[in-house]
Structure formats: C-alpha cells, structure tokens
C-alpha cells in the first residue's frame, strides 16, 4: 500500500474513532488492538505501558467529575458515577485506537517511506512557502534520535533532551544523504481511499442523521 494512502487511512480511522459511540467504539478498539498485536505486539504493549498513567488518570477524572448516578455500596463522598465511568472508558478506547493504528503504521512502513508519504500529503503547502522536504527530513531525524534514545534502557527522557534533539538534527541534516522513495498510486490504493471515504460517510450518517 502506498504510504500516502496509509497516512490518510490512519487519519480516517482516528476521525471514525472520534465519531463512534458506545459498543461500536469498543468493537473498533478491540479490532485495531488485535491487528496491532499481530503486526507488532511488543511495540503496542510498550506504548500502552508508557500511557498507563494517562489512561488511569482519564478514567478517574471522568468517573469522579461527571455528574450522574453513583455506584452503590460505596461511601457517597468516594463513589464514582456510572456515566463518568462510561465516558472515561470511551475516551480510553479512542486512545487505544490511536495507539493501535500508529503501531501498525510504524511496524508496516519504513521511516523513509513514511516520510515520502508525508511529503506528498504536505506538498500543497509548498505553494504557501512551506519547505515540505526540509520539514520531512528534520522530522525523520527526530524520529531516529527518539528511537535511539528509547532503545537505551539506561537513559530516561527529560526536558534536557529537547536541546539534544536540535543539536542532533543540525549535526546530521547536512551529513546524511536522505532519499525519500516516491511512486505513483496504484489502482488498489485508489480503492482503499474510496472504501475509507465511504466508511467515514456511513459512520457520520449513522451517528448524526
């Protein structure tokens, strides 16, 4: 599949996840999680582990700050609400979908190929004076630095590394020869785009019409 189509597919899935509610959203989160486990289980589990406190915080915030019916058998001052737990779980499901689709994208596409798709997607901005290729090169170097840092278990990321990222980019931007492979979209790519567009329209119709 063309990297541009993959990027558009990820964006479409995130839009669909933001529109779905209740059982359909949970089903989408389960499906995308299973696919992510098939593609890159280690990367997906690592992403979930890093986000665990954010997910717990979201559930707690929604559970205790959303008005509604209190759970029984708990002291009134410490009881969450049914509605809060439901909304919190839906927000967690949306984040799980995002983590899953990004894990699938990164596991199935080389960074250089992914950046070529991003360059094509941002190409219309060149008419406004935006240097698309330079942006893609800098983003690729940033991803390489972050990946190298993540593989080093003895180093924990902190705010000081933001300056190191900029130094790494400046040191390698002129030295590395980075080639973004480009190819035309095939018939199957256009079919996938049509399917994603139709699915998005159907979801909008089912949820809001």
Radius of gyration: 21 Å
* SSE arrangement, N to C: HHHHHHHH
The portion of residues assigned to helices is over 70%
Number of domains: 2
Structural class: mainly alpha
Oligomer: single chain
Outline the low-pLDDT stretches.
Answer: none
Number of helices: 8
Sheet with most strands:
none
Shape: elongated
Distance between the termini: 33 Å
Quote the beta fraction: under 5%
The count of DSSP E runs of length 2 or more, i.e. the number of strands, is: 0
- Average residue-wise pLDDT: 76
Report on the structure:
- With 209 residues, this protein is mostly helical.
- The chain has 2 domains: 1-109 and 184-209, no CATH class; 111-178, no CATH class.
- It has 8 helices and no strands.
- The mean pLDDT is 76.
Question: What structural keywords apply?
Answer:
209 residues, mainly alpha
Brief overview:
This protein has 209 residues and is mainly α.
Present the secondary structure layout.
Blueprint: H1 3-19, H2 22-50, H3 52-65, H4 82-108, H5 111-122, H6 132-151, H7 160-173, H8 187-208
Helix pairs in contact: 1-4, 1-5, 1-8, 2-4, 3-4, 5-6, 6-7
């Amino acid at each position: 599949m063309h990297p541009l189509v993959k990027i558009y597919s990820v964006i479409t899935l995130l839009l669909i996840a933001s529109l779905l509610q209740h059982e359909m959203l949970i089903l989408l989160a389960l499906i995308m999680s299973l696919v992510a486990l098939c593609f890159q289980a280690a990367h997906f589990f690592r992403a979930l582990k890093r986000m665990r406190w954010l997910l717990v915080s979201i559930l707690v915030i929604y559970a205790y700050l959303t008005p509604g019916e209190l759970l029984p058998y708990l002291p009134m001052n410490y009881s969450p609400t049914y509605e809060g737990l439901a909304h919190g779980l839906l927000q967690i499901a949306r984040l799980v979908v995002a983590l899953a689709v990004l894990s699938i994208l990164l596991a199935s596409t080389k960074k250089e190929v992914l950046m070529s798709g991003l360059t094509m997607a941002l190409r219309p901005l060149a008419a406004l004076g935006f240097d698309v290729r330079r942006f893609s090169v800098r983003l690729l170097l940033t991803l390489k630095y972050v990946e190298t840092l993540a593989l080093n278990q003895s180093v924990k990321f902190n705010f000081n590394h933001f300056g190191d990222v900029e130094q790494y980019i400046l040191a390698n931007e002129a030295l590395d020869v980075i080639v973004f492979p480009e190819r035309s979209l095939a018939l199957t790519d256009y079919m996938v785009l049509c399917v994603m567009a139709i699915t998005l329209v159907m979801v909008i119709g089912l949820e809001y019409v």
